[in-house]
DNA sequence: CCCATTCATGAATATGTGTTCATATATTAA
DNA sequence: TTAATATATGAACACATATTCATGAATGGG
């Protein structure tokens, strides 16, 4: 056990304060799950196209250069994360964005990425 | 091939416009990599603690309830993503945040998560 | 009613990822 | 130098995940 460290001289009070303000495990898990959805190039691409206009599955596949099944699987993840919504017209399902925060997230991330 | 869809009646011009505005594959990959870093509960926890104060590896491990090695591995990822920076004092390495956007990202994500 | 089309879904597979264990590196003290 | 401590690193393992393939479900046309 090498877990003894001089810098542990944070006061017990301060430790308690910091730990108390930590979001619960449930919230942390949800945060991670949320970010994980954005952590895939295919989903980023789909979200980008949907940020431009409502699109059906086949067109998304065509635009993104992905197979129909792959798109469908990814759209399910985006649906479960409440990032996109659907509108059905006959056999065609139109997808569109369902979250006004997405563009803001992209902007912040782009800022970081471009600060290379 | 079942990739023929009526809704493909987007004009060729519109398709070109949308595709032209798509960030290049490099940028999309970087965006995904960036978000992926936040897509893990351990890293979220470490970032949270570092948002409170500078901390050494052993204390981070203790606070987060993780092994020293696991923390070190995750800190390396955060370092390579330029999200944290280090300061060495003897054998002790102090970590602290190195990006002013992190809190903003957390805020947006929390908003989404809490809109359940 | 039968068929074609669009999308969803389950299984299989290949790849990626987080933790642990053991060990190496670096710094300080004796 | 030797020993001790803090951190970093590499290999191994277990687990998650993205895609493909095959197929199922739903809708509309003939």
Q: Mind explaining what this structure looks like?
A:
Two copies of one chain form a homodimer. Chain A is of the alpha+beta class and 116 residues long. Chain A has a domain of 75 residues: Winged helix-like DNA-binding domain superfamily/Winged helix DNA-binding domain (Arc Repressor Mutant, subunit A), CATH 1.10.10. Helix content of chain A is 60%, strand content 12%. Chain A contains six helices and three strands. In chain A, strands 1-3-2 form a three-stranded antiparallel beta sheet. In chain A, helix 4 crosses helix 5. The longest helix of chain A is centred in the N-terminal third of the chain and has 14 residues. The two termini of chain A are 39 Å apart. The relative contact order of chain A is 0.10. Chain A binds a DNA duplex (30 and 30 nucleotides) through helix 5.
Summarize this structure as a short list of keywords or feature phrases.
homodimer; 3 strands; 116 residues; 6 helices; three-stranded antiparallel sheet; Arc Repressor Mutant, subunit A; DNA-binding; elongated; alpha+beta; 60% helix
In short:
2 copies of one chain form a homodimer. Chain A is α+β, with helices and mostly antiparallel strands and 116 residues long. Chain A contains 6 helices and 3 strands.
Helix share, percent of chain A = 55-70%
Number of strands of chain A: 3
The CATH class of the domain at 40-114 in chain A turns out to be Mainly Alpha
CATH second-level architecture of the domain at 40-114 in chain A: Orthogonal Bundle
Q: What name goes with the CATH superfamily of the domain at 40-114 in chain A?
A: Winged helix-like DNA-binding domain superfamily/Winged helix DNA-binding domain
**What is the end-to-end distance of chain A?**
39 Å
Major sheet size, sense and barrel closure of chain A: 3 strands, antiparallel
Biggest chain contact: A-B, 62 and 62 residues
What is the strand content of chain A?
5-15%
Query: Could you list the spans of chain A in which at least 5 consecutive residues all have pLDDT below 50?
Result: none
SS-based class of chain A: alpha+beta
**N-to-C SSE string of chain A, H for helix and E for strand:** HHHEHHEEH
pLDDT average of chain A, as an integer? 91
Radius of gyration of chain A: 20 Å
Name the quaternary structure.
Answer: homodimer
Classify the fold: give the CATH topology of the domain at 40-114 in chain A. Arc Repressor Mutant, subunit A
Overall, the morphology of chain A is elongated
